[in-house]
Design a protein that fits this description.
Layout lengths: L17 H16 L6 E4 L7 H5 L1 E7 L17 E7 L3 E6 L11 H13 L4 E10 L8 E10 L20 H10 L4 E7 L8 H9 L4 E3 L3 H9 L3 E11 L10 H23 L3
Parallel strand pairs: 1-4, 1-5, 5-9, 6-7, 7-8
Antiparallel strand pairs: 2-3, 3-4, 5-8, 6-9
Helix pairs in contact: 1-3, 3-6, 4-7
Length: 279
């Protein structure tokens, strides 16, 4: 049962504004957590889940399925909850552990609903993290990398109608500079979102590299576009869980992604909590 039945309609109804549903969801989060406004929001992908424990004091944790427009995560390694955390001097972070992936075929509105809800909840910064394959040969499993830009190969967009949004500095140079103050060794790269859920073929990875990509994955790009539309600054971080197909001669598996994420949990948590503390 949802916390409130006051939603104006379904995200699946094109006649209903997704922003209105996001406002309802944000109100439900405020009601459930007792926190009227969140300053920053984080979507924690594979390998990044433990970071929430290092951010600060957990005020409340709510099953995402109780909030309008959200559903339980369909991917192992995601918590399926929305968590309010107090950090710094009375600031609050909304931690999203219930990412909807494009390959789940629930529609782009549901993919970006968490981002729009975070904006409606007051967040001015959106931190998007993921586990991904690396194309740069010197990267090893467990390497964190900043996202400097993206290439969207999903053939979809969260923007509806004649909505024209400038994506020139989509992944904020200011926020990347803050991240490098925490860890000057952080490398960066261009993230390429494929549709999934299958992993990329070696030929597709060569194509991604040819067109300027360094990281391949199945999330983040659509969410980042929606965050920019909502007026948020975006910080993107990838955990390189494996070298991409054809870069490594080893077969790929989700088990490998989970294992690499688990091995990197503690250093990633320290890194992300230090970055958020400076935002």
């Amino acid at each position: 049962m949802r916390i409130s039945d006051s939603a104006p309609g379904s995200l699946d109804d094109p006649a209903v504004s997704p922003f209105e549903i996001a406002r309802v969801a944000a109100g439900q989060i405020a009601e459930a957590t007792g926190i009227e406004r969140h300053d920053v929001a984080l979507t924690l992908g594979s390998g990044w889940g433990r970071s929430a424990d290092h951010l600060g004091e957990t005020v409340a944790e709510v099953p995402a399925s109780e909030i309008e427009g959200f559903s339980a995560s369909g991917v192992p390694g995601h918590s399926g909850t929305l968590r309010s955390i107090r950090y710094g001097e009375g600031r609050h972070a909304l931690v999203i552990g219930a990412r909807t992936h494009f390959y789940e075929d629930k529609g782009v509105r549901r993919v970006v609903h968490s981002v729009r809800t975070a904006a409606a909840a007051g967040a001015s910064v959106m931190v998007l993290t993921n586990g991904a394959g690396g194309i740069k040969r010197h990267w090893t499993p467990g390497t964190p990398a900043l996202i400097s830009d993206h290439i969207n190969l999903t053939a979809a967009s969260p923007l509806e109608g004649a909505t024209f949004i400038d994506l020139t500095d989509l992944y904020s140079a200011r926020l990347r500079a803050i991240a490098r103050e925490v860890d000057p060794t952080l490398d960066d790269g261009v993230y390429v979102q494929f549709r999934g859920p299958h992993y990329e073929t070696p030929a597709e990875v060569r194509y991604a590299e040819t067109i300027g990509g360094h990281i391949v994955g199945m999330s983040t790009a659509l969410e980042a576009i929606a965050a920019r539309e909502a007026g948020m600054e975006v910080l993107g971080l990838s955990l390189i869980t494996n070298l991409a197909a054809g870069i490594s001669d080893q077969p790929l598996s989700h088990g490998e992604v989970i294992a690499a994420g688990k091995a990197a949990e503690e250093p990633l948590a320290r890194l992300l909590s230090s970055i958020v503390g400076r935002l």
